[in-house]
Amino acid sequence: MNEIKIFKIRIHPLSKAEFLQVILKNLTSGEKTIQNGVNASSVCEIEKNEESRIAYLNSDLINIDGISVVWALRFLGFNIPERVACPDLAHDVLKLAETFHFRVFLLGAQETSLKLCVQELMIRFPSLNIAGSHNGYFSEKDDLKIVELINNVDSEILFLGMPSPRKELFIEKYKSLLKARYVLGVGGYFDILSGLTKRAPEWMQKIGMEWFYRFIQEPKRMFRRYLIGNATFIWLVIKEKFFVPKDAN
Hints:
The chain is an alpha/beta fold. It is built from 12 helices and 8 strands.
């Protein structure tokens, strides 16, 4: 599979259609697949957190979730077909689940948001089999109970709607125990479906301003992530361009 070694991890520069082909193939064959998306914020997290880097490095698939990473990789000389945002990928994976009757488990978000999310999914995908769900507000001592809950309903697809790096670290820690064949970190996708968070209009997504739309919705929470984090990301890109040997990743 085509991959790029950059930012101390591997990134797969595939189109959404190519990812879906791999996902369906692996689901059908029973091969376990762990997938996470990478954006500017996660690149910064990987740089400072070795556990996060290992979690990403051990993922089977890594899609480019943020437009800034698309631009950065093109600036660094790589051929990137498109951005594959996690909400868009998750939506199409659910289409596969409905069509091929794969059972889905949703883990994450607040309880109110999660219930609204499930209701919305039943409207969008009437034949979708949601085998179970649980909010993302549980302590580490309850992790194994959550894993058991997911396994007990024989879910084949697991979506984790939790913030980074929590979702990546949870997957890395328990992937050997989880029976789900396909695991995807979907971030704030549940809150988007519930209507509690609004996604930027498509035109803003296309010009790379989705981050700013989120920032104006939650300025206090997003200040450090976007304004400070973006500056850090730019420095990491410059470092890759001019100071990191090509075989260092």
